[in-house]
Design goal:
This protein is an alpha+beta fold. The chain has a single domain, classed as Transcriptional Co-activator pc4, Chain A, CATH 2.30.31.10. It is 23% helix and 52% strand. It contains 2 helices and 8 strands, in the order E-E-E-E-H-E-E-E-E-H. A 4-stranded antiparallel β-sheet has the order 1-2-3-4. It has a 4-stranded antiparallel β-sheet with strand order 5-6-7-8. Strand 5 and strand 6 form a beta hairpin. Helix 1 packs antiparallel against helix 2. The protein is globular, with a radius of gyration of 14 Å. The relative contact order is 0.20.
């Protein structure tokens, strides 16, 4: 599995890279660019949580309502995807743990079409 570009528009990027799986936990790297700011962070999530994330994102894509949160098991890094009106999304969170020297809090917007990219990547895992 290589890098997957989930979002690349209006000076905003989300890039997903699968790293490895140990036991029941998947580790991947997320790179976020929001305007002039950028950062990356590894996320460790259980396979069960990934199944739940795919289900939640699929329902969001179908119903155009709801939210989904990805939380790293090893730090306080997270990404939250919230459906807004008319199929628009707000994606916000924190890349890197607040205990680290550097971390990035971000907020960006897109439309529901990127949900398919998230779903595709998590299903590949």
């Amino acid at each position: 599995m290589n890098n997957y570009i989930i979002l690349n528009a209006d000076n905003n990027e989300i890039i997903f890279e699968y790293l490895y799986t140990v036991d029941n936990y998947v580790t991947f790297n997320l790179k976020i660019k929001s305007g002039d700011f950028a950062g990356s962070s590894n996320f460790c999530i259980s396979k069960e949580k990934i199944v739940s994330i795919v289900e939640t994102l699929s329902n969001m894509n179908k119903d155009l309502t709801g939210s989904c949160e990805l939380r790293d098991y090893d730090s306080d890094a997270y990404i939250k995807i919230e459906m807004l009106k008319l199929g628009h999304l707000c994606i916000y969170g924190q890349i890197g743990g607040s205990h680290q020297d550097q971390f990035l809090k971000f907020k960006l917007t897109s439309d529901q079409t990127i949900l398919n990219n998230f779903i595709y990547v998590f299903k590949k895992i």
